[in-house]
Amino acid sequence: MLIVFVLYLAILLAITAFTARMSKSASDFISGGKRIGGVAMALSERATGESAWLILGLTGEAYLLGIQAIWFALGCVIGILFIWFMMGNRLRREAEASGALTVTSMISRRFPGAERIIGTISSLIIIFFLVFYITAQFYGGGKVLFDTFGIDQTWGIVIGSLVVVVYCMLGGFITVVATDVFQAVLMIISLIVMPVILLAIVLAGRIDIVAGLQQAGAATASLTGGKTGIAAFLLILSGMSWALGYTGQPQLLTRMMLIRSEKDYGKAKWVAGTWTVFAYAGALLIGFLGIVLVGAGKVGAGAASRLAGEKGFELIFPVMVNAFMPALIAGFLLSGAISAMMSTASAEIILCSSAITQDIYGNFARKRMAARKELWLNRLITLLVGLVAFFMALDPGDSIFRMVSYAWSGIGSSFGPALLLVLFWKRVSRSGVIASLLSGTIGTIVWKEFFEKPTEISERLTSFVFAFAMAVLFSLLFPEKKAKA
């Protein structure tokens, strides 16, 4: 396993060495010079979107909660298909017309004179929430290395974060996309091969899957976790609300914006859609079959005790790999798990870097920085963002699933309504966009802190609805002034 994992790291470094030379300007570092094809962008977007949250977080929730985790997955699949088939190409055309390299600059350029305020607010929101997202990835990588190789979790976080920050600093967007493609292939193979092997083990042992789920508890085998009436409806609605956040994730939407042509986009959406369906089905099956195999006593006592510990349910993927896979396949599959963390963290670090250099520094600088200095500024900011997330990952204080949910809600609720209205409603105004950004952020923080537990309604739903309503209201109250003839 260790040999395979070291080989995986060596391939990443080789890709970095080969592609780093292509980043010769800040534009290359941030957007790849808009010369990357559709299939590569689709795989990069999927690798970015499905982080440690999918391989550790969703598999863990499926193991912990049982069948009701289907609603989380269904919400995500609907959201992904919506942004690729309904939203993405329109976004690409808008970016092409404005010459924007980031989602925030595309929104702000729609409203001349408001670039500074919209760009600054947008960037601060991105930086604040994405740091939590990156933290979850570094923490997830540390957990996998700890459970697999017995490496101290702190050292696991050091190794994972160091590799990511190095290749982000050296190559920027081009390197990130190249490594994403490699990692997306690894991830999808892991999420197909793993459940197939587990299913074969269950069938060979003549273990009844339905009985195994029921043995874990009535709630585990229920689509609504045993709840009925309004409580069941809210549970389903909360799970499906993951779909809303996809409409406002800059780290994903940027990849759609930067696809070089209409023809490339047509190929990309089908690649992304197919990848998504197989990946989510695989993640759910790993969690469900984990319940059955652990319940049947097919996993050692030590592994079972690790799963029962605090946040231990998120180890179901590495535990299943270690328990049932030959060493060579295990090393390959666990590299897929690490890939999930690295691909997402790298994209988010680059996004934070571009938000600071393009949308904060760029909007307030009196004169444009020389191209080489701007490139090195991006590299420096990349290092600083990585360091902040690294120190937070040492003591995250929450599960990967919940950290990602919080960041997802904050960014999705802030940008989602604004982007949907900019793309689909002609009457949206700068006041409406600013209202969406602020109310999505404030709504997420307030609801998460004070109302989520007592109501059992996710901040993913409430903050998005609140921000959308505020965006429409302020657009109607403060419409755009018509240009004079």
What does the model show?
With 485 residues, this protein is mostly helical. The protein has one domain: Sodium/glucose cotransporter (Up-down Bundle). Helices cover 79% and strands 0% of the residues. The protein has 21 helices and no strands. Helix 8 crosses helix 13 and helix 8 crosses helix 17. The chain is globular, with a radius of gyration of 22 Å.
Number of domains: 1
Radius of gyration: 22 Å
The CATH superfamily is identified as Sodium/glucose cotransporter
* CATH class type: Mainly Alpha
Number of helices: 21
Shape: globular
Supply database-style keywords.
Sodium/glucose cotransporter, 21 helices, mainly alpha
Question: Layout of SSEs?
Answer:
Elements: H1 2-19, H2 26-31, H3 38-49, H4 52-65, H5 70-98, H6 103-109, H7 115-149, H8 153-204, H9 209-215, H10 229-240, H11 242-245, H12 250-257, H13 262-295, H14 301-308, H15 316-324, H16 327-364, H17 371-393, H18 400-424, H19 430-450, H20 452-455, H21 459-477
Helix pairs in contact: 1-8, 1-16, 3-8, 3-12, 3-13, 3-16, 4-13, 4-16, 5-10, 5-13, 6-7, 7-8, 7-16, 7-17, 7-18, 7-19, 8-13, 8-16, 8-17, 9-13, 15-16, 16-17, 18-19, 18-21, 19-21
Question: How would you sum up this structure in a few lines?
Answer:
With 485 residues, the protein is mainly α.
